[in-house]
Amino acid sequence: MLDSRVTSRSSRSPFWLGFSESLPFVFVVTPFALLFGVVSSEAGLDLLQTFMFSLTVFAGASQFTALQLMTDQLPTLIVIVTALAVNLRMAMYSAALTPYLGQAPVWKRVFIAYFIVDQSYALSAIRFEERADWELSDRIGYFFGTMVLIYPIWMATTVVGALLGTAIPEWLGLDFAVPLCFLAIIGPTLRTPAHIAAAVTSIVMALLLFWLPYSLGLLVAAVAAMMVGARVELWQAEART
């Protein structure tokens, strides 16, 4: 019985494998997007503005950050820089996936860049490392498979949240989706001492630097975590030689 399940799983096309492995994220992305729609409505954005915000940015954490700063009427430059800082991890995701997807045609890389989010990266990074036998087409298929359900759900649920606005009762506690989503993403990726060191560093630094204005503590914490993670990887490499 176990052998048949393994065979069935391995024979599934990469695209549909990505689709199936993205299903658990639906349960956290849906309330996350719904919450953004509600918050956007409360901040004064109309339905079209909310939809275009998600369409052009498509990065939940940055969207929430930018919206909060806009509500506080901070300078536009501060809003943009802070949102980019929060989304700095996407550059790291892109660099990590380049060895696997970097040979794709330019037009496909454009779409890949747009769809690099926490969920697609976390799933792809793990699966690409495990399936060294996959061809480029397999990896591309898997990557887009992870987004074929998540993306339309994010867009549609954002609109639903904006339409419902304050009609959604507070007792539903939609804000639980934000930390839950990131915990679901980060947990499976903490597989090496370097990953764990980077995660602990980012947490400690973010807590220590919470007082910095414009959420700059997050940017400093991210840079520090990258440096610590890289240093631990170097130590490990030196220890093996």
Given as residue ranges, the uncertain stretches (5+ residues, pLDDT < 50) are 1-10
> Helical content, roughly?
over 70%
Number of self-contained structural domains:
2
- What is the string of SSEs from the N terminus onward? HHHHHHHHHHHHHH
Mean pLDDT equals 82
Task: State which percent range the strand residues make up.
Answer: under 5%
In DSSP terms (H or I, runs of 4 or more residues), the helix count works out at 14
Radius of gyration: 19 Å
Q: Span between N and C termini?
A: 43 Å
Q: Strand tally, please?
A: 0
Task: Return the structural class.
Answer: mainly alpha
Inertia-based shape: globular
The major β-sheet equals:
none
